[in-house]
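tool=predict chain=A
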Amino acid sequence: MSSPCLRASVWRSQVILATLLLLAGLSAAYAAPLVTAVDAVGMTVADMDRSVAFYSTVLGFEPVADVEVAGDDYERLQGVFGLRMRVVRLRLGDESIELTEYLAPRGRPLPADSRSNDRWFQHVAIIVSDMDRAYQWLRQHKVEHASPGPQTLPDWNPQAGGIRAFYFKDPDQHVLEILQFPPGKGVAKWHVRSDRLFLGIDHTAIVVDDTDASLRFYRNTLGLAVAGESENYGPEQERLNNVHGARLRITGLRAGAGPGIELLEYLAPRDGRPLPRDQRANDLAHWQTRLRAPDAGRAAQALRAERAAFISSGVIDLPNDARGFDEAVLVRDPDGHAMEVVQP
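tool=predict ok
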């Protein structure tokens, strides 16, 4: 028969082992990324029917949902009192955008003097199978140019050489990009042969003031992974962005699924303007990127610990939301870009 001391020692060892296993489990759970997917890239529009016609007719997006929402929960989520929103989700390939028209109250138009290095700048990059044909198609539909024409980035840049790109604008002056990767660059699916001209969304790009501060938000806190980095400059980049002397530090981030988020830090010129403090979700300069998370509450707690600015009053319960999630919180990144974290 074992002695009482031996039994106590065994019992203590079992308790210690159980505690260590529990702590290891909790540590693994909290080490998991807070965000598992980029679900959709959203923007505020002035005339939904006009925007849906543009994105579907010109760019090949397919409308998949069209709902109206209103009420106290949505006011607290978006930070806009007395709102009524019409929200349309459109899909291109595997990726989606979400357009929101504020039927009430109406917001402000995009600043007429907006530039690509202003820190409210955001765009979506649409992959095309043939840049020349896509550009001619856009010209036939008389899109407004933001670049003078398609640019081919130079081969001296190992990360970006051979990429072809062109900036243009939608009816509300939101900047869009079409992009074609050369062999060996970009996600593999963009190189699968297709008879479609517009294939899907590779990423949304946002201008940031300090890449390292943004990485603390997106990588360290939310758990997105760095997928690529480059420094781009030269006449092709200047013409693409329509910014004289443009020199950019570019950092690509990806979650487990969905399009990427690309950080654009202008090393030069450094005169880009910050997001206006009074910008609201019903202003046409407002974009919001939806991030899926297994636990919106845990994500909000981590964001509060990092002193992120909250647009929402907190995590909002939306049990009857027609867009496919039960909880949501809207926050700003270090430069004011809106990120909506949702829990399905």
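Residues 17-30 have pLDDT under 50 and may be disordered. Residues 127 and 199 are 5 Å apart (CA to CA).
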